Amino acid sequence: ADTGDNVVRLGDEASGISQRVRGLTPGKRYTLGADVEIGPGARRATTLRVRGGTDTEARSFDITPARNRMASDEKRDTYSQRASVSFTAPRGGTVTVELGAVPGSAPVVLDDVRVMADTTAPLPTAEDGTVIAHDDFEGNQPGWGPFVKGDAGGVTDPRTSISDLHEPYSQKEWKNTYSPYDSGALKGKAVDDVLAGRHSLKSHAENTGLVHRTTPATVPFEEGRTYRVSFSYQTNIEGQWAWVTGADRVADGKTTSRDITRDVLEPALDTAAYSREIVAGCGDTWVGLRKLGSARGADLVIDDFTVTDLGVAETGAACAAVTAPNGVELSPGVPGEYVTAFTNHESA
User: Fold this and answer.
1) Mean pLDDT throughout 242-253?
2) 242: which of 25, 236, 262, 312 fits an S-S bond (Cβ 3.0–4.6 Å)?
3) 158 lies in the same domain as 283
4) Which residue segment(s) compose the domain that 212 sits in?
5) Alpha-carbon distance 195 to 163, whole Å?
6) Residue 128 lies in a domain
7) 187 in any annotated domain
8) Dihedral sign, CA of 298, 304, 308, 314?
9) Where are the alpha helices (DSSP H) in 192-347?
10) What is the C-alpha to C-alpha distance for residues 88 and 92, in angstroms, rounded to an integer?
11) Across-strand partners of 161?
């Protein structure tokens, strides 16, 4: 890389790297992970694969659309993000790990490849579908589970972290009793740092903008299928946070991203449940958290994030959008010109 960091850059032909890994504990879960960047504004199918015995585990994606905005990451200001695939070590304790890409002109850069023990919980089952992603934030994997940092605050070290249970100090009963906010408007409005287990994902007084989002490498939504996205949460101030469904589009050598839907999260000082069914489409679908306001002391804690595939959708995704210019004033009874733009990303 230009920074002097040694990386693997795949050629234009079908190419990749592989390594046999020995000495794994049979029956124990591991992950193969790597930092992966597919050239911005381009697509090229890239796969992390683990072969061992009769089983093969793989994770494939063809776009890395989220710019790395984590200031403490050496990959900041690139499109390199962590991707991984979990597997169970076979009886012989030996697997072959592979990272590769199909032929294509888009550069693919790999770095920080490693195999590590995986203490995250296996995917649960669902009666009405197939769970494709679940995180209770209790495992040992790096990052924020399925989420990467968004554009809130630009390239910075964010105010979001995996919170740790440290009773009583991490929980709202102690905060409200022994350390209330100085402001009367906020007094007694603390939330629990941890909703269940020993860890949750907490966003504290975040910058406005997209706080975090999924990527195709972490939650592989497929166009034309219906998904249920759910999680538990607590938050303390009205109008500060929205859960969004978005889509990335690649065209003319550029990747663009936009929100498709926004659900403003209502205040919940006790744990509440969020659930919404979405139809994937309009581009590469993602979900995430957006900070809307700048109220002091606004916290949001989530846990048990789950995405369930409910099958082929009966209708297509609603992708059309109407935009209007900022700063236009409308006064009752006063004639004026107001121009809107209608954009239709829906397929015929």
Assistant:
1) 96
2) 262
3) yes
4) 148-315
5) 10
6) no
7) yes
8) negative
9) none
10) 11
11) 202
- The one-letter code for the residue type at 342 is F
Q: What pLDDT score does 318 carry? A: 83
Each residue's pLDDT tens digit, 10-68: 999 999 999 999 999 999 999 999 999 999 999 999 999 999 966 789 999 999 999 99
Q: Of 76, 98, 117, which residue sits at a domain end?
A: 117
Least confident stretch, 50-64, 91-105, 110-124, 273-287: 50-64
Could you give the CA distance from residue 100 to residue 18 in angstroms, rounded to a whole number? 8
pLDDT of the residue at 319: 86
Q: What is the pLDDT of residues 220-229, one digit of tens each?
A: 999 999 999 9
Determine whether 236 is exposed, middle or buried from the number of CB atoms within 10 Å of its CB (0-12, 13-18, 19+).
buried
Residue 63: other Cβ atoms inside 10 A = 25
Tokens representing 226 are: 């219906």
Phi, psi of 151 (to 5 degrees): -85, 0
Average pLDDT, integer, range 279-293: 98
pLDDT score at 317: 86
**Residue from 79, 76, 215, 210 nearest 156 by CA:** 76
In a domain, 19, yes or no: yes
Residue 331, pLDDT score: 56
32: its two tokens: 């193969």
Q: Using the predicted structure, report yes or no on whether residue 105 has a pLDDT greater than 80.
A: yes
Mean pLDDT of 113-124: 95
Q: How far is residue 307's CA from residue 281's CA, in Å, rounded to a whole number?
A: 16
Whole-angstrom CA distances from 320 to 156, 241, 314, 317 are 33, 23, 18, 9
Contacts of 161 (CB under 8 A, 6+ apart): 201, 202, 204
- CA distances, 297 to each of 186, 201, 211, 322 (Å): 8, 16, 16, 33
Residue 334 DSSP label? -
Whether the predicted pLDDT of 339 surpasses 90: no
Report d(CA 145, CA 199) in Å as an integer.
11
Domain count within the chain: 2
Q: How many CB atoms lie within 10 A of CB 269?
A: 15
- Which pTM value belongs to this model? 0.89
Query: Are 216 and 72 in a shared domain?
Result: no
* CATH code, domain carrying 22: 2.60.120.260
231 and 284 assigned to the same domain: yes
